[in-house]
Amino acid sequence: MTQKIFLTLLWLSFVIYAFFFSPPNQPDTLELIKNLSTGKWEGINPIIISLFNIMGIWPLIYAGVIFADGKMQKIPAWPFATVSFAVGAFAILPYLILRQPNHEFDGNKTLLLKILDSRWLGLSVTLGTAAFLLYAVTQGDWNDFIQQWQTSRFIHVMSLDFCLLCLLFPILLKDDMERRGLKNESLFWLVSLVPLLGSAIYLMVRPPLVETTID
User: How far apart are CA 24 and CA 7, in angstroms?
Assistant: First the structure.
């Protein structure tokens, strides 16, 4: 109950801050989003390009654990997971608030769940994550990014969204490890303390879920 109260307050604080206290919208925000989405990256800071694309990778990582978790919940996971591709933690936090801890998986895996449970997903998101992180670190202009973070609501909120997704993943990680018979505290802390890349690698190395019933 304490965790649910904390997560609810966190979600409300994030919503209020994002809409009322973050920097103002810039006139070119829609054009920037359009160019980022269509690959017209010329003249855009590589850090912003990488962050935008990583915010598309994070929902895939979350989907890799949420759909299995949601199978054993009273609430469906797919609406939250789907909306998270557009709004990130704004959608993930309500799911975490409404779900119940569950360490089990019962039943067959659907085709979608088989894809999300595969190590190919883990390999894909790990390679994509590593590529964009390397691009940001080696090519990015950090002074420009800080300036944009301070003046642009889009960049500011997207950055905070990224940080929240990093911090929230361990809540789902613990149950996902239990479902797979992984009782390894060292692995839990290693994945939890290495933001993003640790979560991506986890999807690549974890054992698959075991189906317990046959149609």
Answer: 26
